[in-house]
Amino acid sequence: MTAPMPGVAIAPAAAAAVLPGFEHMRRFWDSTHACMTVKVLPGEFYVSAQEELVSTVLGSCVSACIRDSERRIGGMNHFMLPEPMGAERNDWSAAVGRAARYGSDAMEQLINAILKAGGRREALTVKIFGGGRVLAQMTDVGQRNIAFVKRYLETEKLPLLASDVGDIYPRQLQFFPASGRVRVRQLRTSRDNELAANERSYLKRLANDPIKGEVELF
């Protein structure tokens, strides 16, 4: 057996477990928190039934952290746009393998994945974050995302335990599904410009998508 290299932390074997369907996600051992960390990018979601840290960085995007507190199963999504609009709504909803980039899909997929992992809908609670106005020269996508997710939770009768939304700053978000604990840090550095540029690029890719092209950029 090859000996580990000096200074390289080896994660416990139990930490390698991941729920089916999430094997592609970016996961690494976080020695500070002594658990696996998973990075969720725009259009992605992740569900965990073990001690893990799920993280993301939010600008105009919104993330919902949804959890079954009784069974300690939870997850996070990350979406840029609230929902498909117009006549193409049904075509998009029927698309095979659609991404969770729209809030309407992101919420449904995250909830369904939690239920599939053993969660119960009546035990679900929600915390929401993001929706900052970091794209000042564009339409206020952040406020549209906030309005959508609040309306969705009200319609689906899902209790909202906490929120940190709006304002003009990006956020770094860390969610611990097993405990339900959330850490939020506002980013007020030069990284703001980088995040805004990334979101502009992401919006333009969505606008040029052959399936959907309804994104209003200006």
Write structural notes for this entry:
Helix content is 24%, strand content 27%. It has four helices and ten strands, in the order E-E-E-E-E-E-H-H-E-H-E-E-E-H. It has a single domain, classed as 60s Ribosomal Protein L30, Chain: A (2-Layer Sandwich), CATH 3.30.1330.200. The radius of gyration is 18 Å and the shape is globular. Strand 5 and strand 6 form a beta hairpin. The strands form two sheets. It has a five-stranded mixed beta sheet with strand order 1-2-4-9-10, with no helix packed on it. The chain has 218 residues and is an alpha+beta fold. The N terminus and C terminus are likely disordered.
Number of strands: 10
Percent helix among the residues? Answer: 10-25%
* Shape call: globular
* Secondary-structure-derived class: alpha+beta
Number of domains: 1
CATH topology: 60s Ribosomal Protein L30, Chain: A
How would you sum up the major sheet?
Answer: 5 strands, mixed
